[in-house]
Amino acid sequence: MQAVGDEKFQKMKWQIHAIGKPSLRYARLGIEEYQKRLRRYADLSLLADAKDQGKEKNSQLLLDRSAGAVRIALDERGDSWTTAELVKKVESWQLDGVKNVAFLIGGADGHAKSLREQSNCVLRLSPFTLQHELALVVLMEQLYRVHTILRGEPYHR
Length: 157
Prior knowledge:
The chain is α/β, with parallel strands linked by helices. The protein has one domain (13-156): 3-Layer(aba) Sandwich (Alpha/beta knot). It is built from five helices and five strands, in the order βαβαβαβαβα. It has helices at 25-38, 55-65, 83-95, 113-118, 132-151; strands spanning 13-19, 43-50, 70-80, 100-105, 121-124. It has a five-stranded parallel β-sheet. Helix 1 (25-38) links the parallel strand 1 and strand 2 (43-50). Helix 3 (83-95) crosses helix 5. The chain is globular.
């Protein structure tokens, strides 16, 4: 297995587009921690500045902001992936030359059907309904975990 950090691969650019700005202290601290950790492996941009304007407007904004990227909509109707499956997807994207992957986190009412249809994948982080800020921290932790696995580092053990 070729490690993501090898010169053959360029850094993956992760985009996380979320409706609503994280306001809970634990979420802000978790987000800051995983942003710091991920810098070593990948470029990460987090856009969580949009106010909730309803499902249709939110979905259009997220689609506009993620144009040109592989889109992954986080939605309760999505497929459940294991960490190992996400690792395989990242490896595949790297081998295919994918440069940008965008995770889309909707507002309180979720995503419009049109966004789910225009996404490359629809992913469910958990069978539990997660508060948006917690979902963001869980997602970022998984991205960090994936990169440590790909590099053969001990975090995931």
